[in-house]
Amino acid sequence: MGRTEQPGLVHLDTHVVIWLYEGRAEFISPTASALIERGRCVISPMVRLELQYLFEIGRTVLDADSVLAALRKDMELDIADSDFDVVVKTSLLLNWTRDVFDRLITAQALHEGASLVTRDRTIRDNFSGGIW
User: Per residue, what are the HEC states of 12-51?
Assistant: First the structure.
């Protein structure tokens, strides 16, 4: 299971994407904000799926593709494209969570040797690349 170190690559967790879209930068820590400003920001495809899930259950008002289209335009946010099977294999090592979204989002960042901007304490306690 190889890692693809990509200096400056910054993965964003789902809540961070929502706050950026909503213009709620005050919800993001100064450390995380600085990393977002300096790095090349991407999301796991699982963030896209989680955004859509949140829309479908009524927790957000816009579908995933609308949110991502706006952020692509505003900050050139892109979707990471690592081989899904490799990401799943990496996720098998992350047995500290039962949340499938968190597991795969973290696994993708880990596989790519990237930081993951997340407010989630469980992720940060278990993944050294978790930044807040």
Answer: ECHHHHHHHHHCCHHHCCHHHHHHHHHCEEEECHHHHHHH
> Which superfamily, per CATH, for 9-123?
5'-nuclease (3.40.50.1010)
Sorted by where each begins, the domain ranges of the chain are 9-123
For residue 7, the model assigns a pLDDT of: 56
SS3 at position 11: strand
Residue 43 has pLDDT above 90, yes or no: yes
This prediction's pTM: 0.91
Rounded Cα gap, residues 43 and 82, in angstroms: 11
- What's the pLDDT at 81? 93
